[in-house]
Specification:
This protein is an alpha/beta fold. It folds into two domains: 5-43 and 289-403, Aspartate Aminotransferase, domain 1 (Alpha-Beta Complex), CATH 3.90.1150; 63-284, 3-Layer(aba) Sandwich (Aspartate Aminotransferase, domain 2). The protein contains 15 helices and twelve strands. It has helices spanning 5-8, 14-27, 46-56, 71-85, 100-112, 127-135, 149-161, 184-197, 236-239, 254-267, 273-284, 288-311, 337-348, 374-389, 391-398, and strands at 33-34, 95-98, 118-123, 139-144, 168-172, 200-204, 230-235, 248-252, 323-327, 350-351, 353-354, 365-369. The strands form three sheets. The protein has a seven-stranded mixed beta sheet with strand order 2-8-7-6-5-3-4, sandwiched between helices. It has a three-stranded antiparallel beta sheet with strand order 9-12-11. Strands 1-10 form a two-stranded parallel sheet. α3 (46-56) runs antiparallel to α11 and α5 (100-112) runs parallel beside α6. The radius of gyration is 22 Å and the shape is globular.
Length: 405
Amino acid sequence: MEDFYKIKRLPPYVFEQVNRVKAAARARGADIIDLGMGNPDLPTPQYIIDKLVETVAKPRTNRYSASKGIAGLRKAQAGYYERRFGVKLNPDTQVVATLGSKEGFANMAQAITAPGDVVLVPNPTYPIHAFGFIISGGVIRSIPAEPNEEFFRSIERAVHHSIPKPIAMILNYPSNPTAYTADLDFYADVVAFARKHEIFILSDLAYSEIYFDGPPPPSVLQVPGAMDVTVEFTSMSKTYSMPGWRIGFAVGNERLIAALARVKSYLDYGAFTPIQVAASAALNGPDDCIVEAREIYRKRRDILVDSFERAGFPVPAPSATMFAWAPIPEKFRALGSLEFSKLLIEKADVAVSPGLGFGEQGDDYVRIALVENEQRIRQAARNIRRFLASADETLHNVIPISARR
């Protein structure tokens, strides 16, 4: 039987192929050091858990919640934006709570996309940035992920040569997977371009609080006039180590926020009320836990870069996010990122994410997540050193001579 139309538009999920190899290795008894999925291993701060437990015990909190988020949570998010970015938001009309930023992106795509609409999406990038629009019937035009002159040349070409004209562009800084960062000068130029050409900006700022070098990452909404064309998505998953709680936000342009809220009202009743109350407590609470988590990720980054370098697998040091974007060692590049990732599991007991899963421009890279402790990262480096020491034998077995370079 033929697949449904929308299912046919989706390519095979690359990460699932790696997950199958990982599951098979674990079934054989292998101790896999999993640096693949960006799934934070740090505990949720205790004061947030305490607020959840306290609220669960109260009568009536088990009832349906508010699709766009309870008033206290939306107010807390507006307070965070004013403290952190100096951006004032109306919690009633410019803030929607989402079930994580992934759901927010997917439902925003549903809200604004007509069949055939063109959306400008970085390549490589986090998969929902593209696939949310593909599922909604949109057409993706790739643009560079790095915020440089080529980015602007690319979006200029896209506006002049895309039919129909693009309706939106995705920004993601600090970037998953590349860890690129952007400054306010870059955002100001993007906002000027978007306003001139009447294109919406959808900005993913999920890693705003995980940064190591340089100033804290800004919000595009800090640019005057950005509110006319922009919605920005954030998440509590990484900032507060709350990935499974599924709480995020969309903030910004009232028309876009209203469209998202309208779609969500047909699809869900919002997160469980005690989770929303606990998330409000997190946003209104002290920043100590954010600073502590940032320092843990910084130490892991430094150990990863140092130990992998000594193992013979150089990894550029990311200045932000909980990921390193690492070029595949030259000897193995002909394999591509998917086969190299499988090989690392089978030969080194280390799991990473193949760059291909983030777009074809990522196929010479793997993404390494800082989600194991320092000891396990060092062990991963030792395993990789042994693997690379036998590289010639491994290559002889897995790569035909004609494919080597």
